[in-house]
Design goal:
Blueprint (H helix, E strand, L loop, with lengths): L7 H30 L3 E13 L7 E12 L7 E16 L11 E4 L7 E22 L2 E23 L7 E25 L2 E12 L6 E11 L1
Parallel strand pairs: 3-4
Antiparallel strand pairs: 1-2, 1-9, 2-3, 3-5, 5-6, 6-7, 7-8, 8-9
């Protein structure tokens, strides 16, 4: 006995085959998109304001912080590993010790005596390379996480002192300073990851502690970033 498919059933079979062929690229794109979303390696870029304290004179100095990070999530691990390269930049203006130039725009902060008398302007750049551990906590569409780690922090300070050089009111001399150091530092904080349309975003707050033999340094950046 032979079965022959003719007419309407054959046309339906052809339509089903064509629909399957048309849907295959879309399904492949969905699988690729899911694979990227579940990829064990993520790259992120973030930027935001920061507050730093470096000496008794330079307390709560406002600046900006940017960071590039690569995070690896080993399969079946409850935590992820994140390597980070960061740049903190702080600008400060204050007055030296003693009877100094009148500059109403300067912060009335007494600087150490070695800086002399005058208007002191400085820019501090802190470059950091750290290795951190992140522990996520999934809360529906939002994932909270804690992060902590350690690494190397290198500071470069460029400063200029506009100092009074004599009895004349308009006599001003310029003195340039330059110093640098590097330390092992530590950090801890937390953040939230969430989706905004097609973008994977995160918001994060951190505390960086740089111990020192004379004075410790502290930095607190709050950043918003994008990850892929």
């Amino acid at each position: 006995m032979r079965l022959v498919m003719t007419g309407t059933p054959l046309r339906h079979a052809r339509l089903v085959a064509l629909a399957a062929l048309a849907a295959a690229p879309l399904a492949a794109q969905d699988l690729e998109r899911e694979a990227r979303r579940d990829s064990p390696v993520r790259v992120s870029l973030s930027l935001g304001p920061s507050v730093g304290t470096f000496t008794d004179a330079f307390r709560n100095v406002r600046g900006v912080h940017g960071e590039l990070a690569v995070e690896v999530s080993p399969r079946d691990w409850p935590v992820a590993l994140r390597g980070e390269f960061g740049l903190h930049r702080f600008n400060f203006e204050g007055l030296g010790s003693g009877q100094c130039l009148n500059n109403p725009g300067a912060q009335q902060t007494a600087l150490p005596a070695e800086y002399g008398c005058g208007v002191y302007r400085t820019r501090d750049d802190v470059v950091s390379g750290t290795l951190n551990v992140t522990a996520p906590l999934h809360l529906g569409p939002v994932t909270a996480y804690a992060i902590a780690g350690a690494g190397t922090y290198a500071l470069t300070e460029r400063a200029r002192l506009l100092a009074a050089c004599g009895a004349a009111a308009n006599c001003v001399q310029t003195v340039d300073f330059h110093t640098s150091w590097s330390r092992i530092g530590y950090n801890a904080g937390g953040g939230l990851t969430f989706r905004m349309g097609v973008l994977q975003m995160f918001a994060e707050a951190r505390y960086h502690y740089l111990p020192g033999s004379v004075r410790a340094a502290h930095m607190i950046p709050v950043t918003i970033g994008i990850t892929r």
